[in-house]
Specification:
It is a single chain. This protein is an alpha+beta fold. The chain is built from five helices and five strands, in the order αααββαββαβ. Helix content is 42%, strand content 13%. The strands form two sheets. The chain has a three-stranded mixed β-sheet with strand order 3-4-5. A hairpin with a 3-residue loop joins β3 and β4. α4 packs across α5. The N terminus is likely disordered.
Amino acid sequence: MSEPDSTTRRLPVVEREQSASAADFNPVPTLGDDDDGKTGRFWSKRRVPAGLLALVVLGAAGLLLYDIAAVRADHPAMRWRRELADDLATRPLDDTWVFTGAGIAVALGLWLLVLAVTPGLRAILPMRRPSEDVRAGLDRSAAALVLRDRAMEVSGVQSVRVQVGRSKVSVNAVSHFRQLDDVRSDLDTALGVGIRQLGLDDPPRLSVHVGRPDKKG
């Protein structure tokens, strides 16, 4: 008898996914299973608010510096600055315009603070990092398109609408034949595998609803 070839490699055994209901769905990450750390959301560069704020500050500072230089050169101050100084010195604090201006300033300040401490980019879902040098994200619309294609492969599904959020994937399907429970079970299985294969850092939970098409007439 000939001895077995030592270079022969064993093929991995692939286990089939078990059917699960939406209530019992528990996403399992596919990349970095031994990594418990979270990558967190992507931070927006806030180019538009930062650019607008920079333009406003630059314009106000330039105008004020020009007026100060004109006064130092023995020219009268601009009319708007004289009127503003007199108005601020004589107008009472409980005046309506003072309250309005203060409210606008506070609202703008709070808006800038919120932009500074929140990451933004809500449309980008962070993916798990296979290494510290790589960081990737997946757009929600792209994830919804992938899951929709998977749902349309399920037998009995006539149409489907998929909405992907940060913590939940909502699926509304219409089935024109087969039992609704069977279609829902197959969708749970197919979409559960699809969500896991997206490789998201914090996989969203799955919610599936299946109904019949509306009767015409």
